[in-house]
Design goal:
This protein has four helices and no strands. By secondary structure, the chain is mainly alpha-helical. The two termini are 37 Å apart.
Length: 113
């Protein structure tokens, strides 16, 4: 048996999908083997545990916004008129959506390759 620098074997079980993803990532990485790829991940990779609970609040806010927009659309369709107050309300609601999205993106970890 050849003298090995690395003597500790690692055995893992993967689903077919996980195996396919691993093969693709190894291929894209340009590394010569799965072993070197996995060693690199162990030494230099990161696992993020991200709390997405704030998405529930965001979804609730979007639900309220869509309800308001539906009410405005019904009023416009019923009267055939577009009111300045309704247009301002839509602009306010859209700003709220964008501000919430920007805040959510700011919470995301920076991903570097």
């Amino acid at each position: 048996m050849a003298k090995r620098e690395r003597k500790n074997e690692l055995k893992i079980f993967l689903s077919d999908d996980e195996q396919y993803i691993l093969k693709q990532k190894v291929k894209i990485s340009g590394m010569k083997s799965k072993s070197s790829f996995l060693r690199h991940l162990i030494l230099y990779g990161f696992v993020y545990d991200i709390d997405y609970s704030y998405l529930r609040d965001y979804n609730a806010a979007l639900g309220k916004i869509s309800s308001n927009l539906n009410q405005i659309a019904k009023r416009m369709n019923a009267t055939g008129n577009v009111y300045k107050a309704d247009v301002e309300e839509v602009k306010k609601l859209m700003k709220q959506v964008w501000d919430t999205q920007k805040a959510m993106l700011a919470k995301q970890p920076s991903m570097k390759q």
